[in-house]
């Protein structure tokens, strides 16, 4: 502690003196040592004459609090804050159907919690706590370093001001033990992949009766074999034949939450067209209603044709070309008439 304080003291002398700072920037510590003048010598601190600091004892107390917060982690200007337990993270993997309808997830994990034998006090049953002899119950100890009067959290009792008379055998006086915990967490309908659910007080227990931390359940949604999710909408890819696309048809498509839906495909629909079925998507989280089901059409081009099918398509192609018969490469080559029709 004393060594660290001296380092801070020396750094302050350099930063508060323009000439020393320039020497340090140019030559490092050796330059400061060689060029130290009256402002950095004995009997002065950072350019303040007489070895003191402007502001008197109040300024010393202020710096004592600041240094104490820097070295010990305690907040300046007050007592020790009760340290809550640490938060925990758990990853739960669910299906898209579970995200659609909502579900419950059973968790099992290790956590530190209050000892059941001593109720988190750390004291052997039948005994209690006694005043800390080091800080005499204050939770903090004070000491002087030159003109500074500083305080820090008591290293013996950790700032509690009291220690156990006889340690509990279940936790060796620590007040906490590691146990296997089980929880059931409700997953709301419409939850998205990557969302986190907070379970208050289900994290690590705090020491000596302080507030426990929280458990954050990270939700991972498995990819679905048929549906893709886009925010609150669901995407379903539906294959149709060329005659269905040209003439139009009526199709049944599956939904995630219930019976199949019926859609009407208009005549002359193009490959890649998306048809929308309202309110058949994912439930909107923390809002009313649902997204839509987007049916994306994929027109299938047959890879092989029978002689009869080829003849019929060639006749169809003549009507498209104003009566001119198609060339042989177009009718027999890869793509053929379909390349002419769909531009592919």
Can you offer a commentary on this structure?
The chain folds into four domains: 2-52, no CATH class; 88-128 and 165-221, Urease metallochaperone UreE, N-terminal domain (HSP40/DNAj peptide-binding domain, Sandwich); 227-300, HSP40/DNAj peptide-binding domain, CATH 2.60.260; 307-342, no CATH class. 25% of the residues lie in helices and 28% in strands. The chain is elongated, with a radius of gyration of 38 Å. It is α+β, with helices and mostly antiparallel strands. The strands form six sheets. Strands 10-11-15-14 form a four-stranded mixed β-sheet.
Q: Which regions contain 5 or more consecutive residues with pLDDT less than 50? A: 36-81, 329-335
Write the CATH homologous superfamily of the largest domain.
Urease metallochaperone UreE, N-terminal domain
- N/C terminus separation: 77 Å
**What are the secondary-structure elements, in order, as H or E?**
HHHHEHEEEEEEEEEEHEEEEHHH
CATH class of the largest domain: Mainly Beta
Distinct helical segment count:
9
The tally of strands reads: 15
Shape: elongated
Q: Hey, roughly how much beta strand do the residues contain? A: 25-35%
Give the CATH topology of the largest domain: HSP40/DNAj peptide-binding domain
Biggest sheet, in brief?
A: 4 strands, mixed
Cα gyration radius (Å) = 38 Å
Strand line-up in the sheet with most strands: 10-11-15-14
The chain-level structural class is: alpha+beta
Number of domain modules:
4
Helix content: 10-25%
Give the name of the CATH architecture of the largest domain: Sandwich
Average pLDDT level: 75
